[in-house]
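Quick entry, no commentary yet.
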Amino acid sequence: MNINETVGIIYDTIFYGVAYFNRKSLAMHPDLIGTDERTRFFHYNNLRSTTHVPDPPDCLLPLFYYNNHRCSVLTAYFHKYFNYFSDTLADFYSMLRDKSRFKKFVMDYYFHDTFNEKELQKLCLSEGQTVLRAAEILSQIIEIKYHSALFYHFNEMVDTAVEFLTQLIPFIQTYRSRRKTEALDTLQKFMVDDIQLLVKKRRLKLDDSHEVQLEKQVYSVCHINQYIVADFCIGNKYIFVLGVDWSKVFSHALNPPHVTMQSVMTALGHPVKVEIVNELRQQDLTISQLARRLHLARTSISRYVQDLLNELVIVRSRKSGPEIYYTLNSTYLRYAKATFDEFLDQAILDSDKAL
C-alpha cells in the first residue's frame, strides 16, 4: 500500500482554517447529522488544546469560507492544480505564490455566475466600479472588513496566507506523527473486501472486468478533516483521501448507488434470493446455516449468496473460524425501497390519468 503523507497534511492544514472560520456551517453538514459536535471536531479541538497553534488572520476568511454548498476556494484551488501523485509541500506553496493565476481562480470562484469574462478580467485588475459591485455581492455572505484585502491587497493577503500555513504545517505534522497507528487502522478498514467492492461499483463505477486492485493504489489519511472520502485518478492510478472516521458517513460520502427497477429485479428476482433475505432479516447467518434452513445444497446457496454480494444486497459481517457470517445491507434496501416507491407512485398516477 502506497501512502502519500503530503496530501493528508495539506488537507488537514486547509481544514484547520475552514473549521476555525466556519464551525457553525460545518456543524450543520448533512452528512454529519446524528454525530455530536464534540465528536465532529475532536481532532480539531485536540490540536488546539494541546499545542499553541496559530490562529489564521481575519483577512484570510475569504480563502477558507465554507457555506455547506461547496468547498472553500483554497480547497478548490488545491484540487485543480495540485498533482496528488507527485507534488510536494514546496509545490503547494508555489501554487499559492503564482498570484496572478490564484487571483483569477478566486475571482472566478466567487463571481463566475455574476460577471462575464471581460468583467472578471477587470476585477483581477482591481478596476473601480467592477470591484464595488463585487464587494457588494460578497458582503452578502462575508463582512466587508474580512474581504477588502481580496480586492485591494490580494498579493499581501497571499503572502499572509503562505506565512500562516508555513507556521501551521509543523503543528499538523507533529499531530499526525503521533497518530500513525490510527492512520494505519483507517487504511486497513478500507481494505476489507466488501468495502473495496462498494468503492469499485458505486464510487469508481467499475464493473468486474476492470482490474483495479485498490490495495495497490495511493492513499492519504486526514485527521482534522475526519469524515472525508475522496478519490482522484490519473489514467488507471487512483489516490484515495480518507478521514479517520470515514466509515461513519460512508454511505453518504460514496454517493447513493443508482438503483433502478431493473437492477433490483435482477438482484432479488429469484425465490431463493428472497428466502435468503428473509432469513437474514432475523439474524446474521453463514452459508452452511442458510443451506440447512432452506434445505438446499451448500453449493447452490453459495451461488445465490455471491450474486447478492455482487449487488451489495448483503455484506460480510464477521468471520468465525472458517465460516463467514452475512448480514443485510440496510443502505441498499433503503435505496431499493425508494426506487420501488417511486415506480409504483408513478404507475398509480399514470393509471389514474388513463381513467
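second:
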Amino acid sequence: MEGNLEQLVAALNIYPISTDVLQQITMLLQSKTDEALSSFISQEYQSLFTLEHKIWQLLSEDSSRWLNDSHYSEFFQTLGSFNKSLIFNQNHITNEIKVSLIMPDTIDQIINIFKQVEQSIDDNDPLITLASLWFNNLSFFIHEYPQLGHSSIMIQMNQYIADHFILTEKFKFYLNQLRQSPVSPLIFTSRQLFYMKTCSLSLSTYFYSNPSSFDYTPDQILQNIGNEYLQIIQIHSYTAELWSTELLTCITHLIAFMRSFLWWNGEQGTKFKILLSTEKILHEYIHALIRIITYEAHSRFIMSQWINDETILMDSTLLFLINIIQTHNISWFFHSMNQLSDTLLEIAESSAYYQICLCAYGILSEILTDEHLKALKFPDNIRYFFFKMLEEAWHNPSKKYHQIPITYFLRGNFIK
C-alpha cells in the first residue's frame, strides 16, 4: 500500500483509522513541492477529492476521540499546509478543481464544527486550532477568488460567524483584553485567536467579495466593537516594535475586517464617518495608521501574495488610508507629514505584493502637490509597474492580473 494514495485514502474508512496510514499520507503530501503540485493533483485528483471531503466529515463529527493523537495532529497540519499551497498556486490548476477540493459539501459540516468550538470548555482545544486552520484557508480562498463569497455556503457561514462570534460578549471581552498595554501573553489562547483572527479574517474576505446584503447594519456592528477597536489601534500603534506574533495577528485582522466592512457595498465612505465620527478621532486614527506603516520591520516580511500577517497588515492599512482620502476632503492633512512621502515611496518600490505598491503610489498621487510629483521619479516607476501588470493580464487566458480584469486597467480603476 505504501505510496498508493488511492489505497491509503480508502483505508481511512476503516475504524479506528490506522496511524500508519496517516503517516504515509502525511509523508506523501509533504514530499510535494509547489512545482510538483499541479502534476500531482492531475494524477491523483479523485483520491485527493475523496480525502478532502472525508476530512471535512471528520472535523464536523465528534473529534475528541482522536485529536490529541500526534499522528492526527501532524496529518491535519500537513494537509492544511498542502491546501494553502493549492490555493495560492498559479501553475495550471483550474479554479474548478480548487473549488472542488477546498470547499465543503454542505453548510451543516461548517455549523457542526462551529458548534464544537462553542461547546468546548478547553480554550486551547486542538479542535479549535484545526478549525482555525481550515477556516483560515477558506478565507484565503475567498480573497483570491472573491466570486466564491457569493455562494450560499459562504453567505450562511459568515452570517453564523457574525451571530455567534463577532456580536457576542466573548468577542467584546477579547477586545477589552487587547486594550491593555502591555498585553499579557496569557490571553492568547486558541479560542481567543479563533475569535480575533479566524472570525475577523472570514468576515474581512467576505466583505471584500462585495456581498449583496448582510443582516446587520453598520451601526449595529460599530456600536458593539467600534470604540474598542479605535482604542486598540491607538494604544498599540505607539509600540509596534514590541508586538508579539499573536498581537500582530490580532491587530492585522481587526484592521482588515474593519476596513473591508466599512468599504463594502460602495457607499462612498458613509460607514467610515460612523466610525470616525469627529475630526479629532479621524486625525488620531490617521496618525495611528501612519505609525503602523512606518515601522520598517513589518515591511521586511511582505510577500508577493496575500498570505501572511505582515502583508495583510500593510495592505489593509494602506487601503484604509486611501479610502479615507477618497471619502474625506483631507489631503491637506498629510502635507505637514514630511517623512510620509519617503516612507510610501520606499514601500511602493520595495514591496513584493502588487496591491501594496498600487496603494502606496495611489496615496502619493493624492497627497503630493504637482510640484512634488514632478520632483520625484515615481511616475516613471508606476508607469512601468502599470504596463507590467497590463501585459501579464493580456497574456493570461482569463485576461486578468490576479483577480483584476484587464478592463479595470484600461479604466484606471484597480484599487479595491
